[in-house]
Amino acid sequence: MAIIDNHIIKAIKVLFNVKLAKDTYMLEGMFLSNTYEKPNPFSFFMVWVPRVDEIPLSIADFDEGKIRFLYKIKGEGTKALSDHKGSIIGVRGPFGKGIKIKPAIGSRWLVIAGGIGIAPIPYLVKTWKIYEVQFDILWGVKTVEEIFDIKTFFPYMERSRIIITTEDCHYKNGYCGLVTDALKHMNAKDYDGIIAVGPNNMLKTVCLDLYEMNPYISLETIVKCGIGICGSCYIKSSDKLLCIDGPVFRCSEVIEYLRSNNLNS
After folding, report:
1. Does the annotation place 127 within a ligand binding site?
2. Which of 20, 22, 29 is nearest to 57 (CA)?
3. Is 243 annotated as a binding residue?
4. pLDDT tens digits for range 202-248
5. Is residue 101 domain-resident?
6. Could you tell me the CATH number of the domain that includes residue 32?
7. Per the annotation, does 251 bind a ligand?
8. pTM for the full model?
């Protein structure tokens, strides 16, 4: 069996890279060798955009040597990545523990996703399909222009219930306001588990409002080396490194970090 070193850059060929909504893209790539490791949901890769930057991206799908990323243009690296079509890029990883728990058969989970925090959810749904988990997904975006039909691109999400909230209030079939405002209309105690992913200020609100339930959250922070050496992703007020121990934590593990005034988002 080949020994896989996730610290080494592996080449992938971009099969397609399409715009789904305002500043939001989906890239599918194929590994050019068979030395890759199957990731856990919420694990991430460091994506090398030649001559520009290396950026951390969550895994939206993974299957038989193919990988998909959902990403939003936020800076020079993601802008350059959006121009890659049919070319070769590099990846290192997967990094982080992700989420390794085995949910109860037929359990019901609430997902709270803010903006491009929706990116790792398709792979979670796919991975937990064998457990027949029922998902209610509360997805919040700033404007209606950021919405896309995620079930079209990830058909195995067909059974998931998706509730959309918009801050500009222009989406007629959803809630108006922040995703955490819409959360107040949900009975969190109806669910066997809760996981939230999105900006850290959103995660702070989720943790404070639902602290008794101690949800799982996927943190955002600066990641550079991905292997726990540089310390850029140290979670202050804890003994955790996001690239080694995360990005998924229980609220109780990182609540002091979220309560601090030094959030990265």
Report:
1. no
2. 29
3. yes
4. 999 999 999 999 999 999 887 888 777 888 888 888 888 888 888 99
5. no
6. 2.40.30.10
7. no
8. 0.92
